[in-house]
What does this fold into?
Amino acid sequence: MVGQAEAARSIGLRFDQVLTLIVLPQAVRMVIPPLINVFIALTKNTSVAGGSFVFELFSVGKRLANLHGSAVVPILLGVACFYLLITVPLGQLSHRLEGKVALVR
It folds into this structure.
């Protein structure tokens, strides 16, 4: 990327043109997949926050299971479905964005 930025400057592009036309498109291609993976991991790891009694999906499921002891399995399956509803679309979004910004080699 450094060589390409220098080449762009040598043909007379201004700094803002180098940034928007050369550097940022390459940076976006490299950043999108790991960023989506971080969002997915963050969503999955919110259940860890249940150990510190933070109000989130896992703790709501735990409270519901405590209130309705006979329906523990359906409640936990419902919580799992909500996690899937969050993470699967993020994975699909990641796949689509990777396809759009991928370089043809």
User: Anything to note?
Assistant: The first helix runs from residue 2 to 10.
